[in-house]
Amino acid sequence: MKFINEVGSFAAVTDLPVINCCTPLAGSSLGERRAGELEAVIKALADRHRLRIVNMLLRAEGEAVCVCEFEPFLSLSQGTVSHHLKKLVAAGLVARETRGTRSYFSLVPGALDSVREVFAPAAARHRG
Questions:
Q1: At what angle do helices 78-90 and 48-59 cross, to 10 degrees?
Q2: CA-based diameter of the chain, in Å?
Q3: What pTM did the predictor assign?
Protein backbone atom coordinates (compact mmCIF):
# COMPACT_ATOMS: atom_id res chain seq x y z
CA MET A 1 0.00 0.00 0.00
CA LYS A 2 1.25 3.50 -0.82
CA PHE A 3 0.22 6.99 0.23
CA ILE A 4 1.40 10.51 -0.45
CA ASN A 5 3.45 11.88 2.43
CA GLU A 6 3.74 15.50 3.57
CA VAL A 7 6.41 16.35 0.96
CA GLY A 8 4.27 15.05 -1.88
CA SER A 9 6.15 11.86 -2.70
CA PHE A 10 4.90 8.32 -2.42
CA ALA A 11 5.88 6.32 0.64
CA ALA A 12 5.28 2.67 1.39
CA VAL A 13 2.99 1.75 4.25
CA THR A 14 3.58 -1.46 6.09
CA ASP A 15 0.53 -3.36 7.28
CA LEU A 16 0.79 -4.04 11.00
CA PRO A 17 -0.70 -7.07 12.70
CA VAL A 18 -3.94 -6.58 14.57
CA ILE A 19 -3.40 -6.68 18.31
CA ASN A 20 -6.25 -7.76 20.54
CA CYS A 21 -7.15 -5.28 23.20
CA CYS A 22 -6.34 -6.12 26.78
CA THR A 23 -8.94 -7.72 29.01
CA PRO A 24 -11.27 -5.05 30.39
CA LEU A 25 -10.64 -4.27 34.03
CA ALA A 26 -14.21 -3.33 34.74
CA GLY A 27 -17.61 -3.66 33.23
CA SER A 28 -20.83 -1.83 33.86
CA SER A 29 -23.33 -3.17 36.34
CA LEU A 30 -25.85 -0.74 34.88
CA GLY A 31 -28.21 -2.03 32.22
CA GLU A 32 -29.90 0.13 29.60
CA ARG A 33 -33.28 0.16 31.38
CA ARG A 34 -31.82 1.02 34.78
CA ALA A 35 -29.64 3.71 33.21
CA GLY A 36 -32.78 5.29 31.76
CA GLU A 37 -34.49 5.24 35.14
CA LEU A 38 -31.48 6.83 36.82
CA GLU A 39 -31.23 9.40 34.05
CA ALA A 40 -34.66 10.74 35.05
CA VAL A 41 -33.59 10.95 38.70
CA ILE A 42 -30.31 12.67 37.89
CA LYS A 43 -32.07 15.11 35.55
CA ALA A 44 -34.43 15.98 38.40
CA LEU A 45 -31.43 16.70 40.61
CA ALA A 46 -29.62 18.70 37.92
CA ASP A 47 -31.00 22.04 39.00
CA ARG A 48 -29.58 24.26 41.73
CA HIS A 49 -32.98 24.96 43.27
CA ARG A 50 -33.93 21.29 43.38
CA LEU A 51 -30.54 20.42 44.85
CA ARG A 52 -31.15 22.97 47.59
CA ILE A 53 -34.63 21.52 48.22
CA VAL A 54 -33.18 18.00 48.52
CA ASN A 55 -30.45 19.30 50.80
CA MET A 56 -33.04 21.02 52.99
CA LEU A 57 -35.07 17.81 53.17
CA LEU A 58 -31.96 15.81 54.08
CA ARG A 59 -31.24 18.23 56.90
CA ALA A 60 -34.82 17.79 58.14
CA GLU A 61 -33.83 14.18 58.97
CA GLY A 62 -37.04 12.56 57.76
CA GLU A 63 -39.44 15.22 58.98
CA ALA A 64 -41.84 16.64 56.41
CA VAL A 65 -41.22 20.27 55.43
CA CYS A 66 -44.05 22.66 54.62
CA VAL A 67 -44.03 24.15 51.15
CA CYS A 68 -44.18 27.58 52.80
CA GLU A 69 -40.65 27.03 54.19
CA PHE A 70 -39.10 26.60 50.75
CA GLU A 71 -40.26 29.92 49.31
CA PRO A 72 -38.22 32.26 51.55
CA PHE A 73 -35.30 29.81 51.66
CA LEU A 74 -35.03 29.77 47.85
CA SER A 75 -36.26 33.33 47.25
CA LEU A 76 -38.66 31.95 44.65
CA SER A 77 -42.37 32.39 44.07
CA GLN A 78 -44.83 29.76 45.26
CA GLY A 79 -45.50 28.68 41.65
CA THR A 80 -41.81 28.16 40.89
CA VAL A 81 -41.25 26.24 44.13
CA SER A 82 -44.25 24.04 43.30
CA HIS A 83 -42.81 23.38 39.83
CA HIS A 84 -39.50 22.19 41.33
CA LEU A 85 -41.22 20.05 43.95
CA LYS A 86 -43.43 18.49 41.25
CA LYS A 87 -40.29 17.45 39.31
CA LEU A 88 -38.80 15.86 42.43
CA VAL A 89 -42.05 14.02 43.21
CA ALA A 90 -42.31 12.76 39.60
CA ALA A 91 -38.74 11.42 39.82
CA GLY A 92 -39.65 9.45 42.95
CA LEU A 93 -37.29 11.38 45.19
CA VAL A 94 -39.82 13.31 47.25
CA ALA A 95 -43.17 12.39 48.79
CA ARG A 96 -46.01 14.87 49.21
CA GLU A 97 -48.68 14.87 51.89
CA THR A 98 -51.49 17.35 52.45
CA ARG A 99 -52.30 18.68 55.91
CA GLY A 100 -55.25 21.03 55.78
CA THR A 101 -54.49 23.60 53.12
CA ARG A 102 -50.71 23.09 53.13
CA SER A 103 -48.54 20.54 51.38
CA TYR A 104 -45.64 18.94 53.19
CA PHE A 105 -42.70 17.24 51.53
CA SER A 106 -40.17 14.67 52.64
CA LEU A 107 -37.50 12.57 50.97
CA VAL A 108 -38.59 9.08 49.99
CA PRO A 109 -36.52 6.74 52.19
CA GLY A 110 -33.68 5.26 50.14
CA ALA A 111 -34.48 7.40 47.08
CA LEU A 112 -30.92 8.66 46.77
CA ASP A 113 -29.35 5.21 47.29
CA SER A 114 -29.53 4.29 43.61
CA VAL A 115 -27.69 7.46 42.62
CA ARG A 116 -25.09 6.89 45.32
CA GLU A 117 -24.51 3.32 44.10
CA VAL A 118 -23.78 4.45 40.54
CA PHE A 119 -20.94 6.66 41.73
CA ALA A 120 -19.61 4.38 44.48
CA PRO A 121 -16.36 2.49 43.84
CA ALA A 122 -16.85 -1.21 43.08
CA ALA A 123 -15.37 -2.26 46.43
CA ALA A 124 -17.95 -0.19 48.30
CA ARG A 125 -20.81 -1.84 46.38
CA HIS A 126 -19.59 -5.33 47.29
CA ARG A 127 -19.22 -4.67 51.01
CA GLY A 128 -23.00 -4.71 51.26
A1: 80
A2: 85
A3: 0.72
14-33 burial string, b = 16+ CB within 10 Å, else e? eeeeeeeeeeeeeeeeeeee
- Which amino acid belongs to residue 115? V
- Tell me the domains of the chain and their CATH numbers: 32-127 (1.10.10.10)
In contact, 94 and 107? CB cutoff 8 Å: yes
pLDDT in tens, 12-36: 667 777 777 666 666 677 788 988 8
Residue length of the chain: 128
What is the C-alpha separation between 87 and 94, in angstroms, rounded?
9
